Records
---
Amino acid sequence: MIKDNKLIASEISHIAEVASMLWSKGWAERNGGNISVDLTDCLTPRELRTKPVKAGIVLPIPMPALEGHVFYVTGTGRRMRDVAREPWENGALIKIANDGLSYDILGINPVMPTSELASHLLIDSSLISAGRPMRVVLHTHPTDLIGLTHCKELLDSRKLSLLLWSMIPECRIIVPKGIGIVPYVAPGTIELARATITLLENHDVIIWEKHGILAVGDDIIECFDAIDTLSKAAQIYFSARAAGFEAEGMTNEQLQELALLFKLPSF
Ligand code: 13P
Ligand code: ZN
């Protein structure tokens, strides 16, 4: 039974831990947000041959780079607070077919994957093709960061990254590549997936205007930490405004000093 695989159980417990944090942060209203993790390397050859409960679900576009890969994905319409309590009942293990054209749902029950599956898989596929595979895609709806995208002036990757970095030194260190911005596109579309992929060439965290944020990485806790740090920076910005003054922010020289001290990529 895949559930008894210790590596898988550990991965699923991290997913449940993050789902719980997303809910308690207030970032996961109803079914807001979704998670996928590539678990292929955790499975034995026998487990990889598990009989599907639903087979041959056609992918919106072919994904040859993902042939045979197995992912845990949260279910569409499922509440993050339920994923936290019962990750197996509110998510699915999916296996991409050997031709990369369809996928099967393995194991326990046929939970249909998130409506953002196209974004998750296209991101995984393009990162593999670019030679920097990442196991985790985390999408959530942080109130403060989404709030910032309602300000036209801040819809500029450089401007927004500098603003958030300048609120607290850790932000520059924990999110060293800054934040990419996808102008508003309807959720769940291939267009949103494609726009996100382009920005992932230069960033690990992307904000979707007036919708939410997406982080990629190898460790789901670190993906959460990156978003949490950006959210902290946004809160500092808003709390200063609420108190009636504009946050001064660290100077460019201070940010430059951090980049040198921590050997961060220049921006
Ligand atoms: P799903 O419930 O389909 O995962 O959708 C949630 C969401 O946040 C869409 O962007
Ligand atoms: Zn969303």
---
Amino acid sequence: MKDYLELSPAVKAALMAGEPVVALESTIISHGMPYPQNVETALRVEAAVREAGAVPATVAILGGKLKAGLSAEEIEYLGKQGTAVTKASRRDLPVLVARGADGATTVATTMIIAHLAGIRVFATGGIGGVHRGAETTMDISADLEELARTPVLVVCAGAKAILDLGLTLEYLETKGVPVIGYQTDELPAFYTRTSGFRVDYRLDSPEELAAAFRAQQEMGLGGGMLVTNPIPEEFSMDPAVINAAIDQAVSDARRLGIHGKETTPYLLARVKDLTGGESLASNIQLVLNNARLAARTARALKTL
Ligand code: PSU
Ligand code: MN
């Protein structure tokens, strides 16, 4: 494994010293936001993790190496490449690594690499899930299977309503993944604080999150834990506006026959175009909010 994994000096030093580390994904940089806001946001998210007392480890595949911890230049490179870089989920790892290629990591691959590196907490924006119409397309994100098998605590803002949120929760229940609401009983829907669906449990502090994750791992249950952290009220969007844009994006994707790994990036970009800059501003704020909670949870895990 040493041949495949490459830690940045800062991440290596932090892990050796037993300091809290938070993993961050890179598909959100390449495919989730436009340049240059993607690079600015990635750097701000790293700064937010540091301010909250943990070390950030942005994850990607560069030159065939599984990297935990990127330099500012590497983040700039991924942001500029944008969708030209391969969006890499679990099934993409073998060939990308063998070819010595680059890849931006999704939630699934970021979990894999974080776990290999010994990082237990990961912050992102939204996870992939069961797409609307999955009963015929079978389009279900590999993120859900990864949550079922890889022991990493993932802090997100719920999932976007580009997905079927009810089926996504059913899938996670089947797979035994605890879905926790942070200071809420309801699953947040990324741009909005509510979705109409209940989470499994509400926990109200980083210490409670850390204790639940520790219990899961110590019992040998394996698998990850999904913490859903609602977007701060002041940045949340009008549900009517965002849901109309999402419905339009989903119907455009169907009409154009978009499928496979292109579906999520297409929907993200279309929703952003339909809502102007407002959804992007919300997106940036919720990721910062998740980074802070992840850093506090990583610290709590160290002091249990
Ligand atoms: N949802 C978002 N923003 C994102 C993604 C999903 O709101 O950036 C990205 C994440 O990297 C996630 C991936 O892991 O898309 C899921 O892609 P797919 O549905 O193809 O598994
Ligand atoms: Mn898919």
